[in-house]
Amino acid sequence: MIVSSHQLKNVSGPLYCETCSQLSDQFNVWWTDGKNDDGLDYCNIHVECATCHNEVYHKSAVGDIHNLDDAINVLSQ
């Protein structure tokens, strides 16, 4: 899902793409989730440059992601 840099303002400061050598206004956010060996839910959230698709931020967390709001909430913690 494409999100604006404004929506990600609380994510570890400004997000900079080293490949494009710029701060971007838009990013793709996507996630994977599953269960670990103990049966606990986990998720991996990825933020990539919407221009070149280079990953600029990644976060892993315990819990399930149901929608973009959940993903942004986890990213901002």
Structure description:
It is built from 1 helix and 6 strands, in the order E-E-E-E-E-E-H. It has one helix spanning 68-75; strands at residues 2-4, 16-17, 22-23, 26-35, 41-49, 55-62. A 4-stranded antiparallel beta sheet has the order 1-4-5-6, covered by helices on one side. A two-stranded antiparallel ribbon has the order 2-3. It has one domain (2-75). 19% of the residues are buried. It has 77 residues and is mostly beta strands. Helices cover 10% and strands 44% of the residues.
Question: Can you give me a brief rundown of this structure?
Answer:
With 77 residues, the chain is mainly β. It has one helix and six strands, in the order ββββββα.
Shape: elongated
- Mean pLDDT, to the nearest integer, reads 86
* Count of individual helical segments: 1
- Report the major sheet: 4 strands, antiparallel
Q: Given the helix and strand composition, which structural class is it?
A: mainly beta
Beta-strand residue fraction: 35-45%
Number of domains: 1
Q: Which percent bin holds the helix content?
A: 10-25%
* Quaternary structure of the protein: single chain
How far apart are the termini? 20 Å
> Would you list the SSEs in sequence order as H and E?
EEEEEEH
Calculate Rg over CA atoms. Answer: 13 Å
User: Could you give the order of strands across the largest sheet?
Assistant: 1-4-5-6
State the total count of DSSP E strands. 6
Unreliable stretches, pLDDT < 50, 5 or more residues? none
